[in-house]
Design a protein that fits this description.
alpha/beta, 4-stranded antiparallel sheet, elongated
Length: 610
């Protein structure tokens, strides 16, 4: 686990990170408290009125036992003398307190519930928005299942706290303070007995806080691992079934489910000991008060109504302590969840937005320049992926990047797309450092097409329109026709309105790639990056995509990463990479005519076709 000022909480979910150090735990708690303050701040007025309603409700409820004491000590003797007024006033007042408490309770629950849901909505928005802004490096190390856990099980814990938060904490505190004052006012001697029972409760509560915090941190980690395994197994169900991995997956799931069960069981045992001891102290105190108070009533030192009111308050005195126990239970679970959520939100974006963006020239020409660039991934800073190099790609030039797997081709393209920032040096578009370009401007000027051609659930038209959401249907159809995809789209059951289903599963790999190219035509960027766009296609699909590429790349700067050298031949220039360095640079014809790695790669490709 990382320690120090750079600790962000993400490492806390590594396989060996079940125990959090003291310093890391304190940082987690600070992050969580800061997040809570930030979330509640816009709702200060609503929280204020919720507190007012809660105070009023507790004040009304505290009046009940006093009215009972008045009915016993004053109303009943007066009624025996024929005067029913005092007893009627006491009964009517008690009924009024019940009605008032019910109205105030309903108003409080409605207001606090609305605030709680608004807070949860804001957390969902922040986690989702921040997750989209985080770098590829983060998502490659922090699985999607963990993010799902942040937005599901962790938010469920927060929801439980918000439902019991103001009510469980403030209501209990107000009741304890108010009842303590009334107990002392009714009889200081009996009140002293009650307060003595608090001595063991102080030590018990401190033990409970420490033990439950550790338990619930473990539950949040174990449920995240469980969700990760579930998501990976379902996403990879074809591989699971093809390689008969069901039994092994079941074993892993059983182990993770057992760990989650054990973590929750440990938390429940902690709560059980705390609540049980709390009830024990309360019942013993009640018995002692009843014994001492009864003897004093017999001796004439205390009125029966006063003892009755004292016992009613004492019963109510320990009810809030039960509420506090439940609140602390929900709080520890929610605090652990907040630590996980805040650690994600506190993770800085790998490619932050510039404080003062610099505008790109209009129109964007598309010249790319790598100036003394060096790159190493943050999680393995000592392993250099791209040693220091410089490269210039003139506007409108199509450059193919070839080389063995791991040569650095995709990393170079990701730097050009600003999925990462270089460790040293600068990547420039038309002379402007990409770190100074606003993200919206960069994405308008540069588009990357990957091998998997990801499509979202929805219609074909919706997926093409991702290139420019404001496009009309006519423009969508024209873009699809430009890449030669209009024919197969119109042949679908509902044409452009056909639902492509999850990840575009209704379309073939070649069709999905043509839809992604239609997006590019519609977006009309100055720079196009293609990461092995034809490597997974059959020969007919590859030819269709290559024909579409001639339209897509016309007049644009392009970097093409390709293993199939047939794709490379459409390039103006070829860069052969090895170990992060450019070892050959020239036109396809020049490199084929000479000796070197590109000629060897081309010969091996031709041999594979034969």
């Amino acid at each position: 686990m990382s320690t120090g000022t750079d600790w962000r909480g993400v490492a806390d979910e590594d396989e060996e990170a079940d125990v959090v150090s003291t310093s890391a735990g304190q940082k987690l708690q600070q992050q969580a408290r800061a997040l809570v303050g930030d979330l509640v701040r816009p709702h200060r007025r609503a929280v204020f009125w919720a507190v007012v309603l809660l105070v009023a409700e507790n004040a009304v409820m505290l009046a009940g036992p006093l009215l009972v004491a008045g009915a016993i000590d004053t109303g009943m003797p007066a009624a025996l003398r024929g005067d029913l007024g005092p007893l009627a006033w006491a009964i009517g007042g008690y009924a009024a307190t019940g009605i008032g408490a019910a109205v105030l309770r309903a108003a409080f629950l409605a207001l606090s519930g609305r605030v709680g849901q608004d807070v949860l909505l804001e957390i969902r928005r922040r986690v989702f928005a921040h997750g989209q802004r985080l770098s590829l490096d983060f998502h490659e190390s922090y699985t999607s299942g963990r993010l799902i856990s942040r937005l599901t099980s962790d938010l469920d814990s927060l929801n439980d706290l918000l439902e019991k938060g103001l009510d469980g904490l403030l209501g209990a505190v107000l009741s304890l303070v108010g009842i303590s004052v009334l107990l002392i006012w009714l009889d200081p001697v009996l009140a002293a007995i009650v307060l003595l029972g608090f001595v063991p409760l102080v030590f018990l509560t401190r033990w409970f806080q420490r033990r439950s915090r550790a338990s619930y941190r473990l539950t949040r980690t174990t449920v995240a691992r469980l969700i990760v395994h579930f998501v990976e197994s379902m996403n990879g169900i074809r591989a699971v079934q093809a390689f008969r991995r069901e039994k092994r997956s079941d074993q892993i799931m059983d182990g993770l489910s057992g760990a989650y069960r054990d973590a929750n069981a440990d938390a429940f045992v902690t709560v059980a000991w705390y609540v049980g001891f709390l009830r024990l102290v309360g019942n013993v105190t009640l018995a002692v008060v009843l014994l001492v108070g009864g003897l004093r009533v017999v001796g004439g030192d205390l009125q029966l109504g006063a003892l009755t009111a004292f016992l009613l308050y004492l019963r109510r005195f320990y009810d809030p302590l039960d509420d506090l126990a439940q609140f602390f239970n929900a709080y520890q679970s929610a605090a652990a969840a907040l630590e996980k959520i805040s650690s994600v939100l506190d993770t800085p974006a790998g490619v932050p937005e510039p404080a003062t963006p610099v505008a790109l020239p209009v129109p964007v020409r598309g010249e790319l320049a790598f100036e003394e660039v060096r790159f190493a991934y943050a999680r393995a800073a000592t392993r250099e992926i791209l040693p220091r190099f410089s490269l210039r790609v003139p506007a409108g030039q199509t450059v193919a990047l070839v080389g063995a797997t791991g040569a650095g081709k995709s990393t170079l393209a990701k730097l050009a797309a600003r999925f990462y920032d270089p460790t040293e040096g600068a990547v420039r578009l038309d002379g402007v450092d990409l770190r100074d370009v606003a993200d919206t401007d960069l994405r308008s000027a540069l588009v990357m097409i990957t091998q998997d051609a990801f499509l979202f659930s929805g219609s074909v038209a919706d997926n093409v329109a991702m290139g420019r959401p404001s496009a009309t249907r006519e423009e969508i159809v024209a873009a699809t026709g430009a890449v030669g995809a209009r024919g197969f789209v119109e042949a679908l059951p509902d044409g452009f309105d056909t639902d492509v289903r999850k990840r575009g599963g209704r379309l073939s790999a070649g069709q999905r790639q043509l839809v992604s190219l239609a997006r590019v035509v519609l977006a009309d960027p100055a720079v196009v990056l293609l990461d092995e766009a034809t490597s997974s296609l059959d020969v007919p699909s590859e030819r269709a995509v290559q024909a579409a590429l001639e339209t897509v790349l016309a007049g644009r700067t392009a970097l093409i990463i390709a293993h199939r050298l047939s794709t490379v031949l459409i390039a103006d220039r070829v860069l052969v990479m090895a170990d992060g360095r450019v070892v050959q640079d020239g036109s396809p014809e020049q490199l084929l005519a000479g000796a070197g790695e590109f000629a060897d790669l081309h010969a091996a490709w031709r041999a594979s076709l034969a």
